UniProtKB/TrEMBL annotation:
Protein name, per record: Early nodulin-93-like
Superkingdom of this protein's organism: Eukaryota
Organism: Eucalyptus grandis
Keyword terms of this UniProt record: Membrane, Transmembrane, Transmembrane helix
InterPro entries reported for this sequence: Enod93 (IPR005050)
Length: 108
């Protein structure tokens, strides 16, 4: 037997328009994360490549220990880590911001 006195949360809408709106918001969040992550990866790659390549050319220890594969591994690891960290933080921040906007819009 259903209890008709229980009211649902305003965030638990199940209409088709609401689901489309949520899907569009999720796509926008992920797109913003991808763009921010790509920018961070480019910057981190450049910031890592300059000292890595310079040290591999100038320092005797680095010259003997950093072959081309090691240099590429260092640069790509830093760029990949920057991408995933920034993309994750951006997606979470955007989702949090949208969540607060949804709550404020439903209360008004």
């Amino acid at each position: 037997m259903a209890n008709n006195n229980v009211t649902g949360s305003p965030l638990e809408k199940t209409s088709l328009a609401s689901l489309d709106q949520r899907l569009a918001m999720a796509k926008r969040c992920s797109r913003e994360g991808v763009i921010a992550g790509a920018k961070a990866a480019v910057l981190a790659g450049i910031a890592t490549a300059i000292p890595t390549l310079a040290s591999a050319r100038m320092l005797p220890w680095a010259r003997t220990n950093f072959n081309h594969s090691a240099q590429a591994l260092i640069i790509s690891t830093v760029a990949g880590a920057a991408y995933f960290i920034v993309a994750d933080k951006t997606v979470l921040a955007t989702a949090r911001r949208n969540s607060f906007e949804q709550v404020h819009n439903t209360e008004a």
